[in-house]
Every structure is written in C-alpha cells, then in structure tokens.
Amino acid sequence: MKELNMKPPSGTRDFLPGEVKKREWAFGTIKGVFESFGFLPIDTPAFERLETLMGKYGEEGEKLIFKILKRGDRADSGETDLALRYDLTVPLVRFFAEHQERLPRPFRRYQMSPVWRADRPGKGRFREFYQCDVDVIGSTSLLADAEVILALTRALSRLGLSGCVVNLNSRKVLAGLLEVYGVPQEQRQSTLIALDKLDKIGASGVIQELKSSSLPEAAVNRIEDDLLEGAAPRDRIEASLTGRQGLREVDEVISLVKPLLKEGAIKFSPFLARGLDYYTGPIFEITLDGAPGAIASGGRYDDLIGGITGKQVPACGGSLGIDRILSTLLADEQNKKDTPSPQVFVTVWDSASRAEALRIATELRDAGMTAEIYLEEGKIGKQIRLASERGARFCLFYGPDEQTRGEVTLKELSTGEQTSAKRESIVHILKTLTSG
Question: Of 142, 226, 384, 406, which is the most buried if we count CB atoms within 10 A?
Fold first, then answer.
C-alpha cells in the first residue's frame, strides 16, 4: 500500500492551536480598528463565476487564478466555469452590483477572508492566504483614500508594529511619466509590469528587462536615468497634464495623512506601480522596517464597478497582508496571554469519579469559566503535570477523602498553594479567585 503524504498541499499550511489563537487575536484587533472607522462587515463565496474574475487583474494576475472544472456530466470536458477568488476586491464589486439598492452611500466595508492564487510557493508566499480589506464605494473625495490608509496604519499600530512607511503614488503620475518618456501606448502596460518588479529585482533588473524588450532606446535611457537616480523630477512629471493631475492627488493625500500618522511616515514613490489593471488613481504600499516586501497595499479603482454595472461608481480600498504581518509579530506578552489555556483543570481520581468530575466541570463552564477535564483516571501526578503543561491556573481534586468530607481541593499551580472548599461553594470560590 502506498504511503500517504500527510503534509498539507504545497503553498498551504496547518495551524496549531496557539497559532490559531494568535491569528484570532490579530483578526479581533483589526476588526475593532476597522469598525471604529465606520466600516461594515460583509462576506462573499469562496468561488465566483469565471467571467466575473477574468479581465480584471491583467495578464500576469490571470495566470494565477485557480479555475474549477465543470462538474457532473461535463466533468470530462476540461471546461471551466468557476474559479476560487483571487482577491476580495472584484468579489466586492460583484456584491455591490447585486445589493447596491440596499447599501448606504458611500458604502464602507471590510472583509477578512481567505483568497487563493496559483503562485509558485516560497518563503512568505502561499497559495492560500487571508486578506483583510477595507473599501469605500461611492466617493470621489480623496478623504476616502486618506481614511483607508489611516485605518490600515492604525491597525498595524494596534498590532504592535511600528516603523511603517506608506509609499504613495498615482497611476496618473505613472501615465504622465510614460508619456514624457516616450513609451508607445501599446507598450505602456508591459512597461508598468516591469516597473512593478522594482522591489523584487531592483533598478538594474528592471532596466535589463526593458532593454531586452522592443521599447524605443530613447525611452529606455530616460527611464534608466531616473531609476538610477531613485526619483523622477517633479518638472518631468508636470510636463504632462495627466502627470500634473496625479501629483495633485499625491500631494493632497499626503497633506491629509501625514499630520495624523502617530507612528511611521508617508512619502511619494513615483515608480510604485501596483501591477493590477484596475487601479486608476492614488496607489500605495505600506512597508515595515526590517520586513521584506509590502505588508499592506491598495489604491483607487474608479472604473472597475462601471465596467461591470455600466454605471460609473468611484471606489478605493486597501488590504492588509495578515500572513506576512503574523510572521513579523514577535511572541510578546500581549500574544502569549491568548494561548488556549484552561482556568481550571479538573482531575479524575478513578472511574467512579468520572460523572461527578464532569458535573463539576460543567458547573464551572456554565458560570463562564474555562474548564478542562482529564479524560482518563488515576496517576494524579501525571494529571498535575498535564495541567501545568496546558497552562491551567488551578488544578481541582475530588478524590475519596474530599468526597467523604463533601469538599474539593484546589491547587494554584504557580505557587503550589492548596485550598479546600465545600463542594456546593466551588463555583463561588473559583469565580472569586479567577476574577482577582
């Protein structure tokens, strides 16, 4: 018989109880921040119709969509009609188109759900991962963009992550630059894809990629000069009307956000591209000192909803890369306190004691306490060791001597101190002790 591979599929992970509790703490913290800004929760299916997702992410993105084969009688056809969601933004647009008459305007939403990408797995890169998104639909005001950025940076701060840098640009700045550089219209999208790799392959890698393309030499030389300088002069951007519009957007968002950033900074990054096709205005990525890559990103996508509904509706949003964030978080005391530990560990003396031990544990749970019962019997020393390993505060004993006296014995594991209490008063005694 062939031995089964017990590892999860490549690009996915199992999570142990302590890891799950840490994730739940992070999700709860982020949720609290998002709701304090007035964002409302929604949820959408794990998969969407294929036509809903296609044509939204660009050629590179669409290669990474997990497609689902038709089922039943069509299973052998090799045709696909559904796909796992690639992100939470396009499903949001579909959701808004379906429910827009029942939603407030502007509509502020947040969603924390898994997404799937058929990417090559690597360090910090998974095929299944969570996104935590906030979006504002129905406002052209750059206050909406500022609110999204402030919500994300505050969430990072509440998670204990400091030193965040918001790198801000506008797709209009990029369009203006490509115009001034002399990049032909039909080659602008491929040029943006190359620029989007700047943080991965560096300026020299981008330049080499552009030189190996059919881009005019003069255009490559102009881009090379600015990339090696690490900036594009404002006067070069302002030579284009579109570029000037983009600069005004960038300047306004910075003026709104910068005074309110208690930690971190915001700066103009003229070569930040964000590879997805649907962005139309301000775009951003948030990086963290000492952590590779962006831990949050987003931008404005004013044309995406109109492309589906036929009615122009402005929108912007951003997403936290929760898996990258969790890998960055240190195991500090704030996280440790949420490891799953019972307040009371109920020991079982023998088989005759099981029913009463279970009754005690149930009474404690009914009173709002966390209680774990040992599932075997005998060897009290072994049970105490397990209670200690589980991080329990108290170990409860109800053996023959205690039963004769109508009492229970409590042992506080951190001090070794033991206390006896009447059986009928155990809930009151423990509630008093655990509330202190």
Answer: 142
